[in-house]
Amino acid sequence: MHGPGLINLDLNLEHDFLFVKGKKEGPALTVGLNSFNVLNHQNDATYLGVLSSVYFGKAVSALPPRRMQLNLQFKF
Fold it and tell me: What DSSP letter does each residue of 8-73 carry, written as one string?
């Protein structure tokens, strides 16, 4: 069965911290923050299609809620 449309917004913020000033090349530390489903909208995934069930046409699972992760990357 098909349900309402999917509403999803993901964001990614990153910044490079250079260890050698004045040069674009060289070692750097990248700090990033990723956020998934920023709006925290419930996106239903699976609907029950059994006619004899009291849950017919209702969602029985959903995609994950808002998630965030922090990334650290050392480049050399």
Answer: ---EEEEEEEESSTT-SSS-EEEEEEEEESTT----EEEE---TTSTTTTSEEEE----EEEEEEE
How do the pLDDT tens digits run along the chain, 76 residues long? 567 788 999 999 999 999 988 887 889 999 999 999 999 999 998 888 888 889 888 888 999 999 999 999 999 8
Which pair of structure tokens corresponds to residue 62?
């959903």
CA distance 51 to 25: 64
* 8 A C-beta contact, residue 59 and residue 46: yes
Instruction: Give the CB-side neighbour count of residue 44, counting CA atoms within 13 A.
Output: 12
For the entire predicted model, the pTM comes to 0.72
